[in-house]
């Protein structure tokens, strides 16, 4: 398990991580999300002893990274896949890591198989594609068979096959009871992979909840209703305080009420229904709502630029 207690990092007068307190449980994949500059990488770096906190603590199974005797056996990390000496072969790189952490050499062959690099184990890392480097980084993270895994943007550079592979790998690592902490800007990928999410904005914790709960809280959830007597139903639904939008002549999108209530009101109004179906919000929708006020580097969009400026008049 990973624990953050009031974790804080200041760079001069800028606060990169601001009093972060939360737990990353074993046995599940926890996604860490947040806009650029939210503090995700800084949090991971402090957890891995690469940066010292200004205040607070980041603990792996109750101990700071610096107190771990054989760190690779306790926590495996993928931060920067390209941070490997380009002149080394994949096998030599992993063997050096294994030796430094008291790990048997045969484990190197196992992880090379696991990540699909066994056939290129003798090639120099400098000739690897980004996707191959990511796989090598994951091999290094798995080397010590650790209980905790920290993966920063692991799907970066992977082709669709590789993305599916890493998704399955993370799910199976969590299934074995390990804590898997993963960051990604790909919302669709997170929606497929994560059980739980922590969302950061300007260094602060905005949300810490199961994926399903974060999506359920979104205003993007709605109910699609098809009926030949839509106008009558609109009157009944808006009269009950629901928000209703026409999406086609005989089709409505209703928000602000559970599906059962909509069905009941239609029944009471004597309106026949041809369809009544829930439409679940995407994680992207829920995420954009959560972080709307925390985006540090937003480009102006036509909605945020005053109309006169957008057309070059002042
Ligand atoms: N070494 C550093 N010196 C000064 N400021 C830093 C340093 N490292 C990070 N920061 C600042 O801390 C803040 C958080 O950065 P961090 O890289 O942790 O964000 P992030 O959530 O990982 O962003 P991204 O999604 O862009 O990777 C940013 O404002 C960044 O500019």
From TrEMBL:
Domain ABC transporter: 2-227
SMART domains referenced in this protein's UniProt entry, alphabetically: AAA
Transport in keyword set: yes
InterPro entries, A to Z: AAA+_ATPase, ABC_transporter-like_ATP-bd, ABC_transporter-like_CS, P-loop_NTPase
A GO term, aspect molecular function: ATP binding
Keywords associated with the record: ATP-binding, Nucleotide-binding, Transport
Matching PANTHER family: ABC TRANSPORTER, ATP-BINDING PROTEIN
Family statement: Belongs to the ABC transporter superfamily.
Protein name, UniProt field: ABC-2 type transport system ATP-binding protein
Organism: Marinactinospora thermotolerans DSM 45154
